[in-house]
Amino acid sequence: MERQLGFVSLLCPERWVWGRQKFLVPLREQLRVWKVTKALFSWKRGVVLLSMVGDGGLLLSFISQGGPLAVWSLYRLPSVDDDVSSELQRVAALEDADHPKKGALSRIARLVMAVRGWAKKGRKEEERPDSFLERFRGPDVKALASESATAGGDGLAGQGRKKKKWKVLVMDPAGKWYYRWLLVIAVPVLYNWCMLVARACFNDLQRRYLLCWLLLDYLADGIYIMDIVIRMNTGFLEQGLLVKDFKKLRAKYFATLQFKLDILSILPTDLAYFAVGIHRPELRFNRLLHFPRMFEFFDRTETRTSYPNIFRICNLVMYILVIIHWNACIYYAISKAIGFGEDTWVYPNISDPEYGYLTREYVYCLYWSTLTLTTIGETPPPVRDEEYLFVIFDFLIGVLIFATIVGNVGSMISNMNATRAEFQAKIDAVKHYMHFRKVSKEMEAKVIRWFDYLWTNKKTVDEWEVLKNLPDKLRAEIAINVHLETLKKVRIFQDCEAGLLVELVLKLRPQVFSPGDYICRKGDIGKEMYIIKEGKLAVVADDGITQYAILTAGCCFGEISILNIKGSKMGNRRTANIRSIGYSDLFCLSKDDLMEAVTEYPDAKRVLEERGREILTKEGLLDEAAAAESMEAMDVGQKLDRLETSLETLNARFSRLLAEYDATQMKLKQRLTSLETKLKEDKQEELFPEGFISPLGEEEKTKP
After folding, report:
1. Radius of gyration for the chain, computed over Cα atoms and rounded to the nearest angstrom
2. Do residue 204 and residue 276 come from a single domain?
3. Cα-Cα-Cα-Cα dihedral sign, residues 536, 538, 544, 546
4. How do beta strands 241-243 and 69-74 pair?
5. Which residues 6+ apart lie within 8 Å of 564 measured at CB?
6. Tally of domains within the chain
7. Which residue spans traverse the membrane (predicted)?
8. Taking the CB of residue 350, how many other CB atoms lie within 10 A of it?
9. Which candidate, 441, 530, 522, places its Cα nearest to that of 490?
10. Is residue 468 domain-resident?
11. For residues 170 and 149, is the Cβ–Cβ distance under 8 A?
12. Is 657 inside a domain boundary?
């Protein structure tokens, strides 16, 4: 039996079927492979029939000559993104007796291996986006950017495939690959900042590991050069869009200070090795000029990490260690220049075996540097003038730089505890108030337990205060993503307009209720609706003990009362007592907020009311007669509104016609005046022709 099933495990080794035992076959790829439904293979000992069954099923049948029939049925299980039932399809097999031998099995094994390899070439199923969330998201930003970039039409398309291929090389400075590259380039920068100075000061360190240093140096140079190439092909934002034009990218990069530092950092100064010798790593100090890339990596990491305070502390510790390291190297170099063991301040004579090996040299200098820069002292006093100057410089560094760093560390630690301190201040204020008002001990204990629950479950953050600096659309999208599963279960939101839902999400307010608290009582006027985020609520009798139903996460109540639907038998009053069983986290939406939101969305308001009437009708809580009367009253009101609108339109048209009439009258008057003037001039010319001298003189002639 096991020998016969060996080839089956080649296709999917997880779980299989034989005989009456049921094994499941979760194929990783969909078996959408055959355009033909059957394939027949035969040999001297029998026939193998390969055929498709159902949707994605595979039937393997073996018929031996003069022997029994064996059938294997394989089915693809639905993926997690499918909208079908999650029940696993069963696999069955029939078994009667032994039959094929090794030759047949090897052929079947090769066949199955070929089918398996071919099936794996299929593409993975794309994750289906949530239909509820699709209403609030537009097309992908990258797709929009690509459309804008190609909006030039055939001109860009005619530049050939080569340009399209090179466009892929443009790196987005906000993308993950650019950040990963910053991590890569930060490593050689930090290596040069730490090891170049140490190698220049400690001769044993340079000579003992020369081949290793040469390999690391030129590997770092290669990464530097690659970084310049990548930096030239890094896009930037112009009017909110990523620029991918190579000429613009290079022109912008060449105009920056970063480009000048990058060029200086890769100048081949180590060619001077041929003149002064290979053990002069100080010739490579220009590699230190590439430091802005390391700082850029630190800045981006601080923005991306979920623990910025911890990262800042680690970053400051690294700066402290680098400064101590550099100071230790400089102390050793000064001791070497003065002479080891020349006085009590410099490093002891290296001829002494106790101080003559590399580890002791570095550790001693590091110890001296730490004591000096932290202003602890307890080091030998300087003897020479240059030693005094160096110690004074070290003390200034210790006082200025390290005091600043320690102050920043203290500020970070204070910021880390700021949330707890603010929360504790609120508790103290409430305690003081309850003590001043002589609140009972039981109530005081209940309030303290409520605060403890908030702190333990991290519900002390004021979401509105945290997100207030974000634009409304982005804040609404965050709220929808966070509360998506809850909002999808609210019936009145199922067909809600996207813009209205954005407004409503921004108006949701979280509330936490303690065990035994009444959310609402029977007969209360409904002014809010509630959505259960976490916890359990009980619909109880008037005695507060008898439970009729349990409401769990995702349920909502009170949504009909805030719509003020005419004809509702409930009116605006609560019809049940709802009490919190344990601590419950709810979202509250007030009636005023809903009415304010739907004011700008009259169509959405009508849809919500229709949806509410449908719910009331299904539950038998809608008075049809009252609803009809309200609809008639609404129709009368709508007619009046239409009449008012028509009257306003007529008034506007009449005013426009009157203005046109006045303008026409003015033009006619002007034309008449012009004609009268012209007629008078013609009469004068007829009475006094040209060349006629009036006896009254020129003055009389000119009179009309």
Report:
1. 43
2. yes
3. negative
4. unpaired
5. 572, 591
6. 3
7. 178-198, 210-233, 253-276, 310-334, 388-410
8. 17
9. 530
10. yes
11. no
12. no
The CA distance from 490 to 556, in Å, is 6
User: What is the distance between the alpha carbons of residues 36 and 367, in angstroms, rounded to a whole number?
Assistant: 79
Which residues are paired to 69 by β-bridges? 63
Top-ranked range on mean pLDDT: pick from 7-16, 131-140, 420-429, 682-691: 420-429
The Cα 359–Cα 351 span in angstroms is 15
DSSP per residue, 310-344: HHHHHHHHHHHHHHHHHHHHHHHHHHHHH-TTSSS
Q: How many Å apart are CA 677 and CA 675, to the nearest integer?
A: 5
Final residue of a domain: which of 574, 605, 628?
Answer: 628
Instruction: Report residue 43's pLDDT band, with 50, 70 and 90 as the boundaries.
Output: very low
Closest CA to 489 of 562, 552, 570, 548: 552
pTM of the predicted protein model: 0.57
Instruction: Determine the distance from the C-alpha atom of residue 279 to the mean position of all C-alpha atoms in its chain, rounded to a whole number.
Output: 50
Using an 8 Å Cβ cutoff, are 587 and 483 in contact? yes
pLDDT of residue 78: 41
Q: Is 703 inside a domain boundary?
A: no
Q: Let me know whether 592 and 513 are in one domain.
A: yes
Which residues lie across from 512 on neighbouring strands? Answer: 585
239/323 same-domain check: no
**Amino acid in the structure at residue 131:** S
Residue 64 has pLDDT above 80, yes or no: no
Give the model confidence (pLDDT) of 326-371 as tens digits. Answer: 999 999 999 999 998 888 899 998 888 888 889 999 999 999 999 9
> What is the biggest distance separating any 2 CA atoms in the chain, rounded to whole angstroms?
151
Report the C-alpha gap between 327 and 281 in whole angstroms: 18
Burial class (CB in 10 A: 0-12, 13-18, 19+), 568: buried
Task: Specify the residue for token string 């530097």.
Answer: 224
**470 in the same domain as 398:** no
Q: Are 278 and 206 in contact (CB under 8 A)?
A: no
Q: Residues 596, 548: one domain?
A: yes
Same-domain pairing of 240 and 334 = no
Q: How far is CA 295 from CA 9, 195, 285, 287, 541, in A?
A: 53, 18, 18, 15, 65
400 belongs to a structural domain: yes
Question: Would the pLDDT of 536 be above 50?
Answer: yes
d(CA 495, CA 615): 13
Cα–Cα distance measured from residue 295 to residue 315, given in angstroms and rounded to the nearest whole number: 10
Structural domain of 402: 312-424
Q: Bridge partners of 197? A: none
Would you state the pLDDT for residue 105?
56
Which among 485, 191, 160, 231 is positioned nearest to 325, based on CA atoms? 191
280, 349: one domain: no
CA 591 from centroid of its chain's CA atoms: 32
CATH of the domain at 346: 1.10.287
Give the integer Cα–Cα distance in Å for 493 and 504. 10
111: left (phi over 0), alpha (psi -120 to 50) or beta: alpha
CA 86 to chain centre: 31
Order of strands across the sheet that contains 577-580:
518-520, 577-580, 537-540, 547-551
| Residue 21 CA, distance from chain mean position | 47
Tokens matching residue 232:
């030239």
| Residues 605, 484 share a domain | yes
Tell me the pLDDT tens digit for each residue of 169-200: 788 888 889 999 999 999 999 999 999 999 99
First to last CA, the chain: 135
Give me the residues paired with residue 556 across strands. Answer: 531
Cβ pair 242, 145 in contact under 8 A: yes
